[in-house]
Write a structure and sequence with these properties.
Layout lengths: L3 E10 L2 E11 L4 E5 L6 H9 L6 E6 L2 E2 L13 E4 L11 H7 L8 H11 L1 H5 L10 H13 L5 E5 L7 H18 L2 E5 L3 H7 L2 E6 L2 E7 H6 L2
Helix pairs in contact: 2-5, 5-6
The site of one adenosine-5'-diphosphate has 11 residues, from strand 2 and helix 1.
């Protein structure tokens, strides 16, 4: 069965119906991209995964477990690593402190994980004792990815990691994410505005429109759709 499965998920904000029956899966080891215009419901879909938004219908299963009603504060250990929109790093804390915050609740393996993440991101290693607020945009995004990896996720979920980055910096972030996928077999769910770039990275794609899945399939087929 799929690593992640959303089945007929409905959700909204007060009277606003943001999701109208979303079916979406990510298989073990798969790289999936979620595209669509502003307001389509992409962020809301990710908020359903993090527990910030409670579905009013349908089910969310992860690793064979129904997590639909698991509240946000109890989801840390489930194995979903979130790289939130806008990165949300703590600017006054050092790079190391920011990474350690991601280790909760797997503290036992913190030192080993920290060494792994610093090896993956040499530029973070060089700046480990500096306040995270002094990092460039690209470095801050790497830090957000590194922090998510500290939780030993089975699925990495990224919300528009290219936002606010120069094209070359965005490409560098994407290269790192792709490498995590190909070399470590990490499953990835990526929300992106840069559709053409994302479709080249991913194996499968969903396109959302007005709270529903308008199109889905192999990334190359979706890319060829007019
Ligand atoms: P996307 O991420 O694709 O841009 P969103 O999931 O943010 O789309 O938004 C889906 C719909 O839900 C839109 O109509 C949006 O205006 C509405 N929405 C999103 N966040 C909120 C919120 N916090 N309160 C009320 N409505 C919201
Ligand atoms: P990017 O294109 O990746 O955003 P920048 O041109 O913003 O890169 O930054 C280049 C380098 O300068 C980076 O290594 C970053 O850490 C450093 N840097 C940027 N802003 C500051 C700052 N306010 N204080 C200290 N170092 C900074």
């Amino acid at each position: 069965s799929a690593l992640l499965e959303l089945a007929g998920v409905h959700a909204g904000y007060g009277g606003v119906r943001a999701l109208r029956g979303i079916d979406l899966t990510v298989e073990e080891g798969e790289f999936v991209v979620l595209l669509g215009p502003n307001g389509a419901g992409k962020s809301t879909t990710l908020r359903v995964l993090s527990g910030l938004v409670k579905p009013t219908g349908g089910a969310v299963r992860f690793g064979g477990r129904d997590i639909t009603r698991v509240p946000g504060w109890r989801r840390a250990g489930l194995g979903i690593g979130h790289v939130p929109e806008g990165r949300r790093i703590f600017p006054d804390h050092t790079v190391l402190e920011n990474l350690r915050l991601g280790a909760f609740p797997v503290r036992r393996r913190e030192a080993k994980l920290l060494a792994e993440v610093l090896e993956l991101f040499p530029r973070l290693a060089e700046r480990r004792d500096q306040p995270a607020g002094t990092l460039s945009g690209g470095e801050a995004q790497m830090l957000a990815v590194g922090r998510a990896l500290m939780g030993e996720p089975r699925l990495l979920v990224l919300d528009e990691p290219s936002l606010g980055l120069a094209p070359l910096k965005a490409a560098e972030v994407f290269r790192h994410v792709k490498r995590l996928h190909t070399e470590r077999g990490l499953s990835v769910l990526l929300v992106e505005q840069l559709a053409l770039v994302a479709l080249r990275l991913a194996e499968r794609a969903y396109v959302m429109e007005r709270g529903a899945i308008a199109l889905s399939g192999p990334a190359e087929d979706v890319a060829a759709d007019p």
